[in-house]
Amino acid sequence: MENKEIVIQAQGLTKRFGDFIATNAITFEVYKGEIFGFLGANGAGKTTAMKILIGISKPSGGEAKVAGFDVYTETEDIKKNIGYMSQKFSLYEDLTIRENIRFFGGIYGLDRKTIKEKTDVLLKTLGFEAEADKLVSSLPLGWRQKLSFSIAILHNPKIVFLDEPTGGVDPVTRRQFWDLIYEASNRGVTIFVTTHYMDEAEYCNRVSIMVDGKIEALDTPQNLKKQFHADSMDEVFHQLARKAKRSE
Description:
alpha/beta, 6-stranded mixed sheet, 4-stranded antiparallel sheet
């Protein structure tokens, strides 16, 4: 990437739970406007690392900065500069689409005039104008995911963290969701995304692959496929998993 401004920096980042090391001395950088894929099987340490980076879990060792703020001492500043979409659907299902947008706008500290303007723009952009006063619980999962992502970036954060954002949605809706990610990235928002869909790794500028708490590979999808003589990221991932198993 041409713009090499670093917005996430981790050096030897470690998280222990008793004798278990969930995140084992990981080191990486993420650049402004980049779509950075954080890949790995369930239990590889992806969500643990993400919780440290969004300021809700303290590391056991190492260093990290997010949007220029320290993960040990400046977690409140981190939270103000990021958006977050959790794996579990995070909007209020007993509120309407419009009410959810207004509620989260208030949480993010936007004034009433800005909230009204952003609500109108968002409803129009998503094509939800006719459904604005429907309860979120009545929407198809794909619609809810798109709304959740759009609300996560309502306050123009520098970075948005997405934890398995397309889990359980159909391939067409997944593709539409990635269109939203591209649009945000083109506006300079940095996207940090975890996924277990290896085809989605191809959509990222760079990917890191975690195996058992360690980053075993980090590069562009094209370079990784070349390095491992693989036709797909799925093949790359399985080669790394087999290699890790042999070295146990």
